[in-house]
Every structure is written in structure tokens, then in C-alpha cells.
């Protein structure tokens, strides 16, 4: 089963350059959360901080009873084993075949005999649909296959938390749809806590249980999918609906002149699109954290956009 990750008042800067501050959120155990934000707002830095590759300036990251920010390097090494990370390009070793890439964490971090390793690698490659590709080098397979190989490697130590850094970058829409289905199926099968950084709005709208948005050095909003997809908060609304009208400009924030010109022209954001149903596991079963469609809206007296939650 996955574990809850509780982030409190996290801040990170490089030199005098702040990336974000005051980031507080909870990744519920076993649920899928998505983190969005304009380029350069520090989403990758957030993932690296969560897994202990970067030290925050302030704040706490609670994984169970332990605050990762206070651990010594040796303890951190242990806690890191709870995490599986899928880096943007799969981060495979180019000179190793897929089998050796996936086996690598097992050989590094465990004393399992090769016979057992073989069984685990075969199982994980099968889970991501790559059975038969063991002997191929990363350079000999497509980008989508490299992502899936990276995913098999991220899962090999049975992590309780899996972080995905733009798993869909560079994939065509059909491959992205397959990968999203694979992510939902793997979450169902493993029960691990997932956090996905993505720029793909369709992924953000259909895959997660929770959505967060980083903007302008802070977490603009984090909460249940329905809360963000029905939000009229200008930044959230603009970003989640990929619109030009709103406070976000080409270089992050629009300046006062741009906003005034927009207001003078009477530019209004279009109505919110319907909230789609969540992506279900392949077997059509109910997701681990699934709530009845519209439940959050009803409980919070929010009228969802017309046409929401239809097949
Ligand atoms: N090791 C580092 N040293 C100094 N600055 C860094 C370092 N890592 C990241 N940054 C800076 O931190 C900021 C956030 O970078 P990050 O890659 O996390 O953004 P992002 O939101 O993931 O962007 P994108 O969506 O384009 O991938 C950028 O300005 C980047 O240059």
C-alpha cells in the first residue's frame, strides 16, 4: 500500500533566486495527484526535493513518521527506497540493454540472487507491456518504449510512492492515452501513491484524484480534481482550460498594461467545459480512491459546468 506524503511550508531557492515558497499539500496514500504549472515554475525541482535529491531551504516533508528534511544522508538513502522515479527521458543507461537497466536497482540495493532478479524483471516488463524487449538497447527502441522501460525500472523495488516527471513529453496523443491507461492500471495494481508532473491538460483532467498548480513562486491551489476543474479562480481556470485570457502571460505573469488592454477589449474567458469522468482501470472496475462523480461539487454547493460527468 502507498503512504501519505505531507509537505508543510516548503521553500526552495538557488542562491538569491527563489523557486517557490510556502508549499503545503498532502498527497493522500494510494491516490494519483497531478502537478501542473507554467514552464520554469519549479515542478521538477519539487519532485527532486521530495525524493531528497535537493535540500529545501525551509519546511518539512513527512513520509509516515519521518521528516525527510531532517534525515542524515544514510537515513535518507533508506527512505529513498520507498520512492520510484520516472525521469523525463526514462534516464536509462545507453550502453545497457533493457533487462540490465531494469535489473540495475535490484543489483544495487538488494542481495537477491540473479534467478530471483530475472523473475522480477520479467514481471515488471510484462506489467508495462515490454516482454520480449529485454535484449534491446535504449537507442534501438521508440521514445514511448523507453518511458515504459523507465517505468518498469521505477517499479522494480516495489515503491510506495511513484513520481513521474512529464511521462507524456514527446509522445503522440495515442501513446499518451496508452500511457495514461497504464498509469491508472499500475496505481490500481500497486496501490502506491502517485505524483505526476505534466503539461498535458487532458491527462490532468482525466487521470488524477487530485490536482495542484504551481504559479509565480507558490502553490496556487491543490485539491480534489472536481474542485480545480470547476474553479473560476483566474489562474486555475486559465491554465486548466489552456486559454490566453487571464493573468498568465507568455513570460509567466501579464503586466498591468496587458491586463488593462484585455479588460478594455471586454475579453471574457469562455464558459468552463464539462468535467469529464475519471479514467477507469482497464478491467472497468472502480478505482481505489474513486468517489461518485459530482460528489465533491454537491458537498461544496458548486454547480458543475453543464454536461459534466457524462460518458
Ligand atoms: N540545480 C539547479 N541550480 C540552479 N538553478 C536550478 C537548478 N535546477 C533548476 N533550477 C532552476 O529552477 C527553476 C525551476 O526549474 P524546473 O526545471 O523545476 O522547472 P519546471 O517547472 O519543471 O519547468 P518545465 O515545465 O519547463 O520542465 C528554473 O529557473 C531552473 O533554471
What's the quick description here?
With 311 residues, the chain is of the alpha/beta class. The chain has helices at 43-50, 73-80, 98-109, 114-127, 143-155, 173-190, 201-206, 225-229, 234-240, 256-264, 295-299, and strands at 5-14, 17-27, 32-36, 58-63, 66-67, 83-86, 161-165, 193-197, 210-215, 218-224, 248-249, 252-253. It has a six-stranded mixed β-sheet, with helices on both faces. The protein has a four-stranded antiparallel β-sheet with strand order 2-1-4-5, with no helix packed on it.
Instruction: Give the CATH class.
Output: Alpha Beta
Number of domains: 1
Please state the overall shape, judged from the principal axes of the Cα atoms.
globular
C-alpha Rg, in Å? 20 Å
Would you report the number of β strands?
12
Strand content: 15-25%
The set of bound ligands, ions and cofactors reads:
adenosine-5'-triphosphate
Order of helices and strands: EEEHEEHEHHHEHEHEEHHEEHH
Termini separation? 30 Å
Residue-averaged pLDDT: 89
Low-confidence stretches: none
Q: Give the spatial strand order of the biggest sheet.
A: 6-7-8-3-9-10
Question: Structural class of the secondary structure composition?
Answer: alpha/beta
Query: In the CATH hierarchy, what is the superfamily?
Result: P-loop containing nucleotide triphosphate hydrolases
The level of helicity is 25-40%
Corresponding CATH architecture: 3-Layer(aba) Sandwich
CATH topology: Rossmann fold
